[in-house]
Design brief:
The two termini are 21 Å apart. Helix content is 24%, strand content 37%. It has 2 domains: 214 residues, Rossmann fold; 124 residues, OB fold (Dihydrolipoamide Acetyltransferase, E2P), CATH 2.40.50. With 360 residues, the protein is of the alpha+beta class. The strands form 4 sheets. A 6-stranded mixed beta sheet has the order 7-8-9-3-10-11, with helices on both faces. It is globular. The chain is built from 10 helices and 21 strands.
Length: 360
């Protein structure tokens, strides 16, 4: 577990944040650009000194202003991957990786060279110079160098923000492999919510240097704090399910969620795999009677658990679909006409194209 309480005052900005990050797994520090996420990373890494507070990793104190403890960055045994990657352009890939290995703690080689080459598929790149690599390849080399330093914690500062969509799609599976196959805790700094949905096992919401909320993503997706950061169009529930089957003819996967099933695009999904789905509140349709003769194939039975205001003229309807918690946005007029109320059974309709499925 990483436990951090950090305070730092500057003329133009202030940090006053306290959060916990379970280990292993990926904890995402999510917020808008300029929220203070990168500053928090520098404080954790020892590159900046907090005015006050404490940092402890798995019970070991790295910083404690009350006790006068402040371990230098090199003694914390953390590794950082920055936005600009900071590879050595005059060295080839092998030499860049060797630099990481030379920084490893003596006798602490748990992530071996051949394992890094396998996980990140770097074997064919070893003799190439960094300027000969694509953006996605450079990102993989930076990750490999950081892993070979044998860090206790890997800090990732907006690692995908500089990549275009095709390169991001190329690199994301490597982060998933690191999360799933290495028992290495990671802190992911990002303002891209799709990265949070796909990668994070724990989330800390940051705004203006403060923690708005923290916890698991499905729970946070139902709260007002995340809606503050995402805005109305990005609001909705994140739910988890398991793939029952994949139909090669239609390209759709049948995913069990709550007491029902949803059909989602099946690319890269396998039967038995866990998935996380984002259902936007604006894309859900509620019906108080059993739907008939509709092109919308995804239908879940549920019960309204609460209705909350969504200014200026809308309501958010909270629905329990057999254990899957959903959010739907309706107008006040529609809610009045349908006489929506807590405890009411209904059907939730959602088009498969609005679902975002990610392997976990």
């Amino acid at each position: 577990m990483l436990n951090a309480t950090l305070r730092l005052a500057r003329t133009e900005f202030a940090i006053d944040a306290s959060f916990d990050a379970p280990t292993p797994g990926i904890t995402a520090l999510f917020g808008r650009s300029g929220a203070g996420k990168s500053t928090l990373m520098h404080l954790l890494a020892g590159l900046l000194k907090p005015d006050s507070g404490s940092i402890a990793l798995d019970g070991e104190t790295l910083f404690d202003s009350a006790r006068g403890t402040n371990k230098p960055a090199e003694a914390r045994h953390l590794a950082c991957v920055f936005q600009d990657l900071r590879l050595f352009p005059h060295l080839n890939v092998r030499a860049n990786l060797d630099y990481g290995l030379r920084r490893a703690r003596r006798g602490q080689i748990s992530i071996r060279w051949d394992r890094v080459l396998e996980l990140l598929e770097l074997g064919s790149l070893l003799h190439r110079r960094c300027w000969q690599l694509s953006g996605g390849e450079r990102q993989r080399v930076a990750l490999g160098r950081a892993l070979l330093a044998q860090p206790r914690l890997l800090l990732l500062d907006e690692p995908l923000s500089a990549l275009d969509a095709p390169r991001r799609a190329e690199v994301l599976p490597y982060f998933e492999r690191l999360r799933d196959e290495l028992a290495l805790p990671m802190i992911l700094i990002t303002h891209l919510f799709e990265d949070v949905v796909r990668l994070a096992t724990h989330v800390v919401l940051i705004d203006s240097g403060r923690v708005l909320a923290q916890g698991d993503l499905p729970s946070l997706s139902l709260g007002p704090e995340l809606r503050i950061l995402l805005g109305a169009d990005g609001s909705g529930a994140v739910i988890e399910g398991r793939v029952d089957s994949v139909d090669a003819a239609t390209g759709l996967a049948r995913v069990a969620v709550g007491s029902g099933h949803l059909l989602v695009p099946g690319d890269g999904l396998r039967p038995g795999s866990a998935v996380r789905l984002q259902l936007l509140a604006r894309d859900l349709i509620l019906a108080t009677e059993a739907p008939r003769s509709l092109s919308v194939r995804n239908q879940l039975r549920g019960t309204i658990t609460a209705l909350t205001t969504d200014p200026p003229h809308n309501l958010l309807v909270h629905v329990d679909a057999g254990g899957a918690q959903l959010l739907a946005r309706v107008t006040q007029a529609a809610a009045d006409e349908l006489r929506l109320h807590a405890g009411q059974p209904l059907w939730v309709l959602v088009k498969s194209v609005t679902l975002r499925g990610h392997a976990l």
